[in-house]
Amino acid sequence: MAWTSSAAAQHPADSTGHIMPREATSAHLQQDDIRQDAVAMSLTTDTLSIALPDSAKSRHKRDWNTWRPNPKRAMWLALVLPGAGQIYNRKYWKLPIIYGGFVGCAYAMRWNNMMYRDYSQAYLDIMDQDPTTQSYNHFLHLGNTITADNMERWQEIFRKRKDRYRRWRDLSFFTMLGVYALSVIDAYVDASLSEFDISPDLSFHVMPAVFNNRDLPGNPLGGAGIGLQCSLNF
To answer: CA 72 to CA 78: how far, in whole Å?
Structure first.
């Protein structure tokens, strides 16, 4: 009996009461640990699966019907990238206008700069009196020639055309800057006016009214007068 008690103390019994060997006891303990870890992981997964919908529900969902843009943010976005302020304000229909203005100004600036360089070279050629440099002949109409009699007139023509295309090139550049400035101003003003009240309460009413005119002498209606009363609700 003493030996059995000692063995029982060293080798725990299984669920049927039989004494298990040391190796079986170790394997049984490992299985219990694995089983407990699996249960803990299952509980953790269940907790996460329950908590995720709650956190998603608690996350504030933006309501575009009541959302109002921030004027400063719209202005800075428009400064960094033209058109970004209009995208932030959700005014997408303005993008073709803005980018169309940029494309048109860029094309005008490129065209005028090309014509300015051509006429500048033609003006230099006609002024140097060198017969080997005659690029100005490409700008003459059919049948026109430059002689000693009309040389000064053609020199003045090429000078004016050179200056004209240079002026138009510079004007195209400043127009592009104006389009950029207008896009920034539009983004800021549009975001600021988003708080402007445009509810149906904005109305103008005209209705008949009776006025007290006791202090007005010669009134045939006595102390009262009839007129129109205007009211503006805003």
So the answer is: 10
